[in-house]
UniProtKB/TrEMBL annotation:
Domain Oxidoreductase molybdopterin-binding span(s) in chain numbering: 43-189
Stretch list, region Disordered: 1-30, 205-224
Pfam families in the cross-refs: Oxidored_molyb
Record protein name field: Sulfite oxidase-like oxidoreductase
Annotated PANTHER family: OXIDOREDUCTASE MOLYBDOPTERIN-BINDING DOMAIN-CONTAINING PROTEIN, PROTEIN-METHIONINE-SULFOXIDE REDUCTASE
Length: 224
């Protein structure tokens, strides 16, 4: 008697089968939404003498670059809005960043044809690897402002990367060197049991057996 559309119109609203549906498919599996901004890193927050600070771009490039902070600020500025997802199970929606799109930096560099992967080197002694093809998207950036303010030191001032479509450990705070590579090489967490690709929507957390991270661990960290 009724076609499907009619039936749907008459049906009482039903509870979404999962919280994720209510969130419009934006929350990856196993993640919890937070409004606060957790602060996570290994080691101490670095301090800089900005006169001496440089961003090095090297590896499979025709000519290596050494950029001062002024050089970085003089590159075209863009603004992005994105959701971020940490492997310790927190996600934060609608974060706003300002900085230089990776593809705008790339347009200033002559890559060697062999360049296919990138290692981001950061303080203190942090590395993370991403395929070059992944960095060409419109929302991958070297950020120096968050939510309309300069980055705070704990969130990566003076410069951090934002790679929104990968778990947040792929977004290096305090980035100092961008190395283009022929072959892929694992970074810090990638060598320590975490997934090389790290796609939150594919639940790519670990390279082997799941590591025992307590589900509420992130709630005990520092926030702002
Ligand atoms: N240099 C550096 N960058 C880093 C890390 C780190 O330990 N050192 N931790 C990563 C991880 S695991 C996460 S979740 C995010 C946290 O960024 P936030 O403190 O701004 O939330 O930074 C990433 N970038
Ligand atoms: Mo993380």
């Amino acid at each position: 008697m009724h076609n499907k559309a009619e039936r749907l119109k008459k049906a009482k609203p039903i509870a979404p089968s999962s919280a994720d549906e209510a969130l419009g498919g934006r929350l990856p599996p196993g993640q919890t939404l937070t409004a606060k901004f957790p602060i996570l890193h290994e080691g101490e927050v670095p301090r800089y003498d900005m006169e001496k600070w440089r961003l090095t771009v090297d590896g499979e490039v025709e000519e290596a670059l050494e950029l001062t902070y002024e050089d970085v600020l003089a590159l075209p500025t863009s603004r992005i809005e994105c959701d971020i997802h940490c492997v310790t199970r927190w996600s934060k929606f609608d974060t706003e960043w300002e900085g230089v799109l990776f593809k705008d930096l790339l347009s200033r560099i002559k890559l060697k044809p062999e360049a296919r992967y990138v290692m981001f080197h950061a303080d203190p002694d942090y590395e993370t690897n991403v395929p070059l093809s992944d960095l060409l998207m419109d929302n991958v950036m070297l950020a120096y402002r968050y939510a309309g303010e300069p980055l705070t030191d704990k969130h990566g001032w003076p410069l951090r990367t934002i790679v929104p479509h990968r778990y947040f450990w792929k977004s290096a705070k305090w980035v100092r060197r961008i190395e283009f590579m022929k072959e892929d090489r694992p970074g810090f967490w990638e060598r320590n049991g975490f997934h090389n690709e790290a796609d939150p929507f594919e639940d790519q957390r670990f390279s082997g057996e799941a590591l025992p991270i307590p589900e509420d661990e992130w709630t005990r960290k520092e926030f702002d």
